[in-house]
Amino acid sequence: xxxxxxxxxxxxxxxxxxxxxxxxxxxxxxxxxxxxxxxxxxxxxxxxxxxxxxxxxxxxxxxxxxxxxxxxxxxxxxxxxxxxxxxxxxxxxxxxxxxxxxxxxxxxxxxxxxxxxxxxxxxxxxxxxxxxxxxxxxxxxxxxxxxxxxxxxxxxxxxxxxxxxxxxxxxxxxxxxxxxxxxxxxxxxxxxxxxxxxxxxxxxxxxxxxxxxxxxxxxxxxxxxxxxxxxxxxxxxxxxxxxxxxxxxxxxxxxxxxxxxxxxxxxxxxxxxxxxxxxxxxxxxxxxxxxxxxxxxxxxxxxxxxxxxxxxxxxxxxxxxxxxxxxxxxx
Length: 331
Hints:
By secondary structure, the protein is α/β, with parallel strands linked by helices. Helix content is 45%, strand content 18%.
């Protein structure tokens, strides 16, 4: 009988050993990430958000050991892509590269089917892309001070172009107007490139553009740049003063870019991606070159909570701007 019990215990021990042996590979397979990751972008290929996403995806995939596939899902100011991520499984395999538009959209599109702050998880703020205030070469002002003086004495006489009603270049200009007690006449175009073309042709007086896209026109002296919304002068246009240097403190029309996921994303996955991305922003010379020197970004990084605070402040700011400027967009 004892021998029977001994044989039974031996068999049980072997079975447990077998389970322990097979459990290790199964656990390893469950380690994040173990398959390709999809990264949504709410704007077209070649846009600033798309460029940031593809640079981040390339270097982040090397750190995570899995490919990251960037997918463009355009529409409703980037909200279609955000909605797709908000509705996805919180497993870390569906991410979203966002721009400042995500903070503007709740005010511009009040009928969104999801909540920007409740249904998405902030992972990390990548950086900010400064914007530049541009005027046509023949405009009767050669500095920001002269421009604001002229604007105050000629209300509504300055025509400015934008990428469209509710777009970042529209609202950043209205923010400037609110902050400085000025008023301009808005001329919306289908994309900021059309607005810039109109500025070059002398059809309008003013445009706000990102430093990345404005730099060639500034360097060729096809436009006059009055100020840039960055903390320090940009290497892409070192002769252009910051708004603070030009006499206007407190204005920041820069666009932010960050990485988000769906709500309820596990803290360990958020922490892993945040840690790897922050290390890249700090220590990868190649990534820094592509985003900072070539792309014009001011790199930021930081914790998920810091990104959450930034997002909340931006949502609040643009809600006030939209309300004060009486901006409405058909849905």
